[in-house]
Amino acid sequence: MVKIAKLHIDGMHCSACSASIQSNLEKNSSILNTKINTISGKAKISYEESQISEQKIIELITSYGFPASKDNSKEREMAYIQGLKTRLLVAIPCFLVIFVLHMGGFHSFWSSAAELLLASVAQFYCAMPFYKGSMSFFETKVADMNVLIALGSSVAYLYSVYLFFSGAKGYYFEGSASVICFVLLGEYLKSKAKKSASEELEVLAKILPPKARLLKEDKKEWVAINTIKKGDKCLVVSGEKIPLDGKIIQGEAEVSSAHINGEELPSVLREGSEVIGGSVVINGEIIVESSKDSSDFFVYEMLDLLELSQTQKPPIGILADKIASVFVPCIVLLALVAFLFWLQESFAFALSIAASILVVSCPCALGLAVPLAIVCASMRAKRNEILIKSPDVYEKAKQIKFMVFDKTGTLTKGEIIVQKADIFGDKKEILSLSKAMQEDNPHPIGKAILEYTKEFTTHVVLQKKEYLITKGVKAVFNQEEYYLGSLAWIQEILGKKDIVKQEEGVVALCNKKELLAVFYLKDSLRKDAKEVIDCIKNLGIVPVILSGDNLASVEKIAQELGIKEYFAQTTPLQKSQKIGELKKLGGVCFVGDGINDALALEESSFGISFASATELAKEIGDVLLLKDDLKGIVEVFKISFATLKNIKENLFFAYVYNVVLIPIAAGVLYPFVGIVLQPSLAGAAMAFSSVSVVLNALRISRLKL
Predict the structure, then answer these.
(1) Are strands 515-525 and 412-423 parallel, antiparallel or unpaired?
(2) What pLDDT score was predicted for residue 30?
């Protein structure tokens, strides 16, 4: 029988780590399929239960140097993060003191001894996770970042120890400590991000209420929703969330599914209508029969799809695999060959050559090149109230060909407003009556009319008021009946048709004799929407609307904004599929704010959401605009373009020293001109490479938008 193990894996630094785990696991014929996400630390492993157990798989992964546990083991994850934090808090002061002693000209025996002591603490305590991880090389025969970090810091440290006990000067303790300090900081921040990524999907499950009111043999019984089976019948009344997917078998109600399908107005559902768990009953009472078991509900299907999408390897992972698998063995081999070649001179000379190669190849600048640019860019974005959560955004922004917008709550405010009103009679009296009829009405249209009439404070006392599902409000005032609601209902009462030209988004007020008022409704457009769309077009990006709302509403907004491509009445799955189709033509950025947008946000090249969005959209989106301003979208692209350029410059500064100095460090010039790169100069070159990268990255902080 095939089973799936959902595991959490600690200690992965890059895609090479996950690749080594995956390749070694799949050598076992009992393991059928492996999906590992380096960022979240999650793994889904299909295996043949009769041949291997989940515990054995956990032991195998752990033996490779990556502690594995069941995915529900939060304690181990927290312990790992706390361990990193503790080591980081030790590494930072160790590095700072060593740096001050080294750069401050303190070269006495005791200052050197202090450097040795502090560097030893950093090397044997703070760097322990990297040493443990590098042990996987002996199991997997794959060199990952753990090997690179352990080797780079160890060579600088061990050569410095050799110099200390031989009485020489020119130590590199600050080099070994800085590697450990910076990498630990990056690993800690990444692990915190992993924890956040593992928690983001938990938001989705909270869409459903924890319990449902089931009808069993004419009795009402509250049960946990995870116990619901196909065929169970559930009673849902006004103000409650529908806890299951199914079909209405009795009753009638206005149901809001705004977070599911993007529609800003509730729908009237009757017997035979299908409903989705998480929708809210605004008015009415219904009995719903479950069409599936709880494990198959729409919300949980979305959860599975999102988890699956998170296990896909990003394109940059392929490059990281190649660099990690080629760079480390080549440098080690070169250092070994150079050491053996120069033994003819002397052991000390050969060791100096080998140390110079390894020190000048130390990945400090290479390790800083990308993350430092990203940190500076993220800080610059934060100043403009933009939170860029995924570093991939900086790389992918240049590839974007389509900018896909959800409509409701994104291009529009997601709020129904009264655009204008035609009043036939005493304006103050009619609007005061309308206000009284809509007080305490939770319906979005009722709220819109209340907002429009809030300045009319004449107190009106109604003798009677009744809400009629699908129609509106019926009230008695001064012994006369008044009706405020849908245009079709008002026309039926008056016995007239075509009382207004526009029928879309209209409600009216009348008595039994005459029409008193007509309210024209609209979803308000964001004030900066048109300007932003024009800017996006200027960047060579095609704007597209992808909405769950009705065609007339979407078409109207598209025309106002000058958007030629738009799609209406799309389900969450259809949105995701459409994004997939567009991605075949180029990169796609999706901007949305609802639960219905979660799959589309994940499917897109990268997603942008708002601080005012639903919790899930905020977690899933790669970029979060903290200010309720669409202009932040354009700023994201400007920052990303500048950052990608800066990263390429940083990589040049990081690599140019290696390309030029590694041959010199290997002694290529020594037979001809007698020049050899001393380890101290190699350390200085390595430091200068890092300084170049730092200074260049800091330029992003001064970027003008």
Answers:
(1) antiparallel
(2) 87
Q: Point out which residues pair with 275 in neighbouring strands.
A: 246
**Tokens read off for 60:** 């195998």
Q: What pLDDT is recorded for position 581?
A: 93
596 contacts 572 by C-beta, under 8 angstroms: yes
Residues 6 or more apart whose Cβ sits within 8 Å of residue 518: 421, 422, 499, 500, 506, 507, 508, 509
Check residue 27 and give left, alpha or beta (phi > 0: left; psi -120 to 50: alpha).
alpha
Length of the chain: 705
- Return the CATH fold of 211-296: 2.70.150
Task: Looking at 143-214, list the stretches that DSSP marks H as alpha helix, in order from N- to C-terminal side.
Answer: 145-166, 173-200, 202-205
What is the C-alpha to C-alpha distance for residues 454 and 426, in angstroms, rounded to an integer? Answer: 17
CB 306 within 8 A of CB 599: yes
Question: What is the fold of 386-412+526-626?
Answer: Rossmann fold (3.40.50)
C-alpha–C-alpha distance, residues 397 and 444, integer Å: 37
Residue whose C-alpha is closest to residue 519's, from 666, 398, 416:
416
Which ranges of the chain have pLDDT less than 50?
Answer: 197, 308-318, 320-321, 614-618
Which amino acid, residue 229? K
Same fold, 386-412+526-626 and 425-513: no
What is the 3 state secondary structure string of 107-138? CCHHHHHHHHHHHHHHHHHHCHHHHHHHCHHH
Containing 233, the helix (H) or strand (E) segment is strand 233-237
The residues near 489 (Cβ < 8 Å, ≥ 6 apart) are 468, 471, 472, 483
**Chain segment 261-291, per-residue pLDDT in tens:** 555 567 788 888 888 888 888 888 999 999 8
3-class secondary structure, 436: helix
Among 180, 596, 153, which Cα is nearest to 361's? 153
Are 287 and 214 contacting, i.e. CB atoms less than 8 angstroms apart? no
d(CA 604, CA 320): 22
Instruction: Give the DSSP H/E element, type plus range, for residue 648.
Output: helix 631-665
Task: Indicate the Cα dihedral angle 559, 560, 565, 566, nearest 10°.
Answer: -90
Q: Whole-angstrom Cα distance, residue 323 to residue 329?
A: 10
Q: What is the pLDDT of residue 130?
A: 78
CA 437 to chain CA mean position, Å: 44
Q: In the chain, what are the domain boundaries?
A: 211-296, 386-412+526-626, 425-513
Collapsing DSSP states into helix, strand and coil, what is residue 245? coil
Pairing label, strands 42-48, 515-525: unpaired
- Measured CA to CA, the distance from residue 583 to residue 403 in angstroms comes to 11
| Contact (CB, 8 A) for 7 and 42 | yes
CA torsion angle for 70, 60, 145, 17 (degrees, to 10)? -60
Looking at domain 425-513, its CATH architecture is 3-Layer(aba) Sandwich (3.40)
Is residue 118 within 8 Å of residue 181, measured between CB atoms? Answer: no
Beta bridge partners of 267: 255
Question: Cα(404)–Cα(609) distance, rounded to whole angstroms?
Answer: 12
Give burial (CB, 10 Å; 0-12/13-18/19+) of 314. Answer: middle
Task: Tell which residue, 636, 635, 647, 638, has the closest CA to residue 697.
Answer: 647
- Strand pairing category for 542-546 and 400-405: parallel
Residue 512: DSSP 8-state? S
Q: How far apart are CA 419 and CA 399, in angstroms?
A: 40
C-alpha distance across the termini of the chain, in Å = 58
d(CA 202, CA 163): 54
Instruction: Estimate to the nearest angstrom the gap between the alpha carbon of 129 and the chain centroid.
Output: 27
What pTM value is reported for the model? 0.56
d(CA 89, CA 315): 34
Instruction: With both helix axes pointing from N to C terminus, report the angle between 444-452 and 427-438 in degrees, rounded to the nearest 10.
Output: 150
User: Of 280, 273, 266, nearest to 251 (Cα)?
Assistant: 273
